[in-house]
Amino acid sequence: MQTIFHVDGDAFFAACEQSIHPDWRGRAVVTGAERGIVSAASYEAKARGVSRATALWDVHRIIPNAIIVSSDYETYSLFSKRMFNIIRRFTPEVEEYSIDEAFADMTGQDRRHGCSYRELACQMQVAVMNELGISISIGIGPSKVLAKVGSKWKKPSGITEITIETREQYLQALEIGKIWGIGSAHATRFRMMGVRTAQQFAAMPASIVKQSFDKPLKELWHEINGSMINPVSTSIKQDYKSISKMETFTPPSSNAAYLKARMMRNVEHACAKARRYGLLASGVSLYLRKQDFRSSYSEAKLSVDSAYPGEIFSVIEELFENLFEPWELYRATAVTLTGLHKMTGSQKALFENYEPSTKQSLVYKSIDMLSAKYGNHAVMTGTSLRLPVQLTQQRQRRINLPVLHVAV
DNA sequence: TCTGGGGTCCTAGGACCC
DNA sequence: TCTGGGGTCCTAGGACCC
């Protein structure tokens, strides 16, 4: 039997802000100023009715003296790394699941440390509080899913241990749609079947589960009944299977040239990230979001693996011609690089011998250097110039530098 | 809650081949 | 003319997560 911890930061972004600014402790702190809705709210703000996705003007209305700041991901990532390292003192088997969550396989650590799992969880909380000034909640269970139910059970600063024997009481109180892995579509389907709680799902006979559900739900059923299907994965994520860049713009547009300029920006940003990780894409996809949130999507293989906008954009343009409906208004474009893999030595050689790429790779080598030195948007291609002037000026102000234009 | 940005995995069904 | 069976790859899209 495995023992898994799920460690979850309490109101993580807001807690980091309060840790950095001690005079904000005890006050309503909200992050998300950059997008107009709440990303994280401190418990003081939650107590007064502010939750995730509340519009900021509502926050203002409800709590006039609330502190509202932009999310500062780089700083939170530092807190995150340090939190993971503290957990690693208890076991090397740590999976960094998201910026504020980790799974830890603690199996056998009770004997090693000579105390109960609950005591170990308590020590973890104390260490994180003392060293980082933030609180965490911990769920303990025989599978990731049950550990996750536990960490949500009591917050903030909770410790909840769920075993095969005690799981029923927790699952009975848990709505089907609140289970990790069941979203709104499945929740609706379950409710139509008369299944309303996690316990009702867990109690379904194996034979029914086997014939009526697809793989993810079958696995979920096992996990919620206490079998570990998904082990804790310690490999640190360093590469991506796909990289995507999307941006919403206002007002929505049906102007093809403008949309292409937006897509070119998406391509440039995605390619820059791929090159940063030494990755090449073998395919691309384009996603257009219409004003009413309907969307269209298409993908294609590249004839040559690439991480350079010049080669990729022509394929994107073809996809665009197929998807674009001139009478529609579009509010966002997204480009995804797919089938990513490490640029190996031989690929590099092949890549550089390929004539058009040589020029591109030279140009982009310089661009990457300039970007590293002066910021991500110091250099843009000509297509991006079709974007409204204000955007460019905004960027110039931010990086405090003339914008360089390079023809590729 | 009228909605930002970035990921992963799974599956149905068609194309194409033998 | 209506006729087999099976495998693999690809595209499109659904669903979920933070």
Count of DSSP helices? 17
Question: How would you sum up the major sheet?
Answer: 5 strands, mixed
Proportion of residues in helical segments: 40-55%
Structural class: alpha+beta
Per-chain topology:
Layout: E1 4-9, H1 12-20, E2 29-31, E3 40-41, H2 43-46, H3 56-62, E4 67-69, H4 73-88, E5 94-98, E6 101-105, H5 109-113, H6 117-132, E7 136-141, H7 144-153, E8 159-161, H8 167-172, H9 184-192, H10 198-202, H11 206-212, H12 215-224, E9 243-253, H13 256-276, E10 279-290, E11 295-306, H14 309-323, E12 330-338, E13 341-342, H15 345-353, H16 355-374, E14 379-381, H17 389-399, E15 404-406
Parallel strand pairs: 2-4, 7-8, 14-15
Antiparallel strand pairs: 1-6, 1-7, 2-3, 5-6, 9-12, 10-11, 10-12, 10-13
Helix pairs in contact: 4-6, 13-14
The chain binds a DNA duplex (18 and 18 nucleotides) through α9, β9, β11 and β12.
Summarize the structure in words.
This protein has 408 residues and is an alpha+beta fold. It folds into three domains: 8-160, Reverse transcriptase/Diguanylate cyclase domain (Alpha-Beta Plaits, 2-Layer Sandwich), CATH 3.30.70.270; 164-224, Orthogonal Bundle (DNA polymerase, domain 1); 243-406, Dna Ligase, domain 1 (2-Layer Sandwich), CATH 3.30.1490.100. The protein is built from 17 helices and 15 strands. The protein has helices at 12-20, 43-46, 56-62, 73-88, 109-113, 117-132, 144-153, 167-172, 184-192, 198-202, 206-212, 215-224, 256-276, 309-323, 345-353, 355-374, 389-399, and strands at residues 4-9, 29-31, 40-41, 67-69, 94-98, 101-105, 136-141, 159-161, 243-253, 279-290, 295-306, 330-338, 341-342, 379-381, 404-406. Strands 5-6-1-7-8 form a five-stranded mixed beta sheet. Strands 9, 10, 11, 12 and 13 form a five-stranded antiparallel beta sheet that branches. A three-stranded mixed beta sheet has the order 3-2-4. Strand 10 and strand 11 form a beta hairpin. Helix 4 runs antiparallel to helix 6. The chain is globular. It starts with a strand and ends with a strand. Mean pLDDT is 87; it is low at 388-408.
